[in-house]
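Objective 1b: paired records.
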Amino acid sequence: MSFYERHRDFVEEVLRTAPDGVRVEWSGDTLVMHGTPTGIHQLNLVLVQRQFEQHAPDGYIFSGYSPLTTPDVTKSRNPDLTYLPIASLARPGNSTPAEEALIAIEVVSPSNAGNDWVDKLRDYAVMRVPLYLIVDPREGTVTLFCEPSHDRYHARHDRKFRDSMRIPAPFDFDLDLSGLVRYPD
């Protein structure tokens, strides 16, 4: 029995009563709550989102912090940004099956980098999200993971903020990284 199944009432109450700006996720037996992102986090996210928006396939739209779940409800992750079918966002409920997401995009928090680089890297691969993009303002890097299988991605591409990065189909464009901003030291 999964964490969610054992503690369904508790999780539902936390989701219902969490204050604005607090995101709630779970992975296995771990419940994770996040506070409101910083201005630099938001700026980098918007700069990336604007570029993806120009290349999103027909019928898909960006969504921020949408809960992605697996059919067996063992994981729920809320990427900073994802692209989902318009029809999935029009359905009732507060989550979307992860297999409907085209990509998960995360901007690394200065206080909890392991969540994006370890936990979400594993979980998005398990959830079969085809592309996972990590923007890391601590290091000034962007990393794209592709080809999910079981609990890992089989392809990885790294670039610096001043460079550009090729984003594969279904987006198929060069992501300009030159405007991204690092966290202060």
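Objective 1b, second protein:
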Amino acid sequence: MDKQKQKVETPKIKWDDSQMRSTYANVCNVSSTREEITLLFGLNQAWNAQQKELVIGLSDRIILNPFAAKRMATLLNNVVAQYETRFGEIGEGSVEVTPAATQSERKAPLND
């Protein structure tokens, strides 16, 4: 059989973004069961590092099957690696305001 005829054509993918919405998140949490992996996204608006309790406003929950989650992990790893190549290594911790910083230091403009 001819190799051209054996080739299976991959369907063309059309991305429909007509129902898409954008949400900013600076917090993410992940949990899983055997059948699904759940990503929770939210926003931490706390400015005081001395707070005893942080309230994170959750905005979105994305539930993936394990196969889609693994593809997403691969894509994210590739994108982060490309980002770090261009802009430098990303730390894993969050930026914290030290108690020694004064209110005026926290509000100083970033005009380097």
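Residues 66-87 form the longest helix (22 residues). The radius of gyration is 21 Å.
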